[in-house]
Every structure is written in C-alpha cells, then in structure tokens.
C-alpha cells in the first residue's frame, strides 16, 4: 500500500543480514520475484567504487547493505551512494547502530529534500525517530521509549497505513486550507473555503461575543479547529487506504 502511494521505504535494522532479508521478504517489502542486490563487504575506497559500479548496472532491484559497508560508502562516495540507493525501490540496511539510523535519515533529508517519516518500536530507534520530520512510535514488548519520543504513537504496525494515508493527508491539506481562514480579535470570525474548486468561496461568519482574552483564545484554538476538521474532509476514510495509488506522494 505504501509503495503504491509513491512512498520509498528504507528498512534500518540491527539484525544480521540473513534475518533482515527474511523479514523484508515475509513482510512483502521485497516482492517474491524481485531481484536482490546484496552489497559485498567492503573496507576501502577502491572496493566501494567497484561495488557502486556493480549496483549502477542493476535495474529495479532491492538493495541490502550492512552498516559497516554503508559507513565506508558514505565516507568516500556519499552523493553517489544516496543517488543510487534512492533509485532502488527498497533499501534494507542491516547491522545498523542507532546513530547510523539517525544519520541515514538526516542524509536523505539533505540530499533529496523530501519529508521523512521514521517508525520504530525500541529504545535504539529514538534517535532515528527524532531526526525525521515525523516520528511514529509503536508500543510493544520492547517498551514505550519509542512511542514517548515520537510525534505519533500507535499500538500495532497495521495502523500505520491509515495514519499516513488518511490522517496524514487530511493534516497536510488542512494546513494549507486553514491559511484561508482569517480571525481577528473582534466580534466576527470569517472563514473562506473552496471545497468544490469552482472558484467561488463559501463565506461563513461565526458571530461570538468576545468579552475578554479568554473567550477569544477559546474560540481561536478550540472552536475553529473543530469546525475545520469536519469541513476539510474531502473524501471518505476508506478511499486512501483502498486506493493509495490515487494519492501519489510527490
């Protein structure tokens, strides 16, 4: 579902290579008939150059790389590796330290200019979650450290699709449309909205008595966001989850 929505997925884990590969295949992160390129163990600049050339000749293949090999590539060929890895549909980085996870998120933000979302369930994911634009923590057997450090917390991984596809889309669109609303410390709050995109704005006027600053802030921060939350929902909640390809992320 996430791939159909145009989201690029990187799996960063501390597990060994065999375990990480099995998890990626069993979770269908890597398709059954998809080619896999396993980055060889490297230790110097020349070996990194040869492996990057080998990866450059592969098309539409999943990349699996160990943390120490990744560190060598980033030390000598940071720009080239990020460009090649971003062209891969799936990237699996195994044997990663917590700091490496955070560094990868920071590099992706720096080189691609895209927004990043990090999902984790353990204490070793905290630095990665905090480095991303949006952090999602999953409460599980490993405790609540990740959920407490994250921007959003879920109890099961299967809720992630609805969180990103439905709530994330509404939050993004709502933030843009909310700029159309104007509120002054007077008796009238005027909000404009053009849901049907016909060029004509619907003019709403909410009259309220503003006797003191408390009533004004109550209306501004409670009433108006509550009204916007209903008005700005353009599609049903099942639409983005069932048809993610219609909501391709840029």
Automatic annotation (TrEMBL):
It is a multi-pass membrane protein. Keywords: Magnesium, Metal-binding. Residues 173-196 are annotated as: Disordered. InterPro entries: HAD-like_sf, HAD_sf, P_typ_ATPase, P_typ_ATPase_c. It is found in: Membrane. The keyword Magnesium applies. This is P-type ATPase C-terminal domain-containing protein. It comes from Porites lobata.
């Amino acid at each position: 579902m996430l791939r159909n929505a145009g989201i690029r997925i990187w799996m960063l884990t501390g597990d060994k290579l065999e375990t990480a590969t099995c998890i990626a295949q069993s979770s269908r992160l890597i398709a059954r008939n998809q080619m896999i390129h396993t980055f060889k163990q490297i230790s110097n600049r020349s070996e990194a150059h040869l492996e990057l050339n080998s990866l450059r000749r592969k098309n539409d293949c999943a990349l699996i790389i160990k943390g120490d090999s990744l560190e060598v590539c980033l030390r000598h060929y940071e720009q080239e590796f990020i460009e090649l890895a971003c062209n891969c549909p799936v990237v699996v980085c195994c044997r990663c330290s917590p700091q490496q996870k955070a560094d990868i998120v920071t590099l992706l933000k720096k080189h691609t200019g895209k927004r990043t979302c990090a999902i984790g369930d353990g204490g070793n994911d905290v630095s990665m979650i905090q480095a991303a634009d949006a952090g999602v923590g999953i409460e599980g057997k490993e405790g609540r450290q990740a959920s407490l450090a994250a921007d959003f917390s879920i109890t099961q991984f299967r809720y992630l699709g609805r969180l990103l596809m439905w709530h994330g889309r509404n939050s993004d669109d709502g933030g843009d449309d909310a700029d159309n609303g104007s509120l002054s410390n007077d008796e009238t709050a005027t909000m404009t909205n053009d849901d049907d995109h016909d060029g004509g704005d619907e003019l709403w006027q909410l009259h309220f008595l503003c006797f003191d600053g408390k009533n004004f802030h109550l209306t501004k921060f409670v009433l108006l966001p509550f009204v916007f939350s209903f008005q700005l929902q353009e599609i049903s909640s099942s639409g983005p989850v069932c048809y993610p390809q219609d909501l391709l992320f840029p």
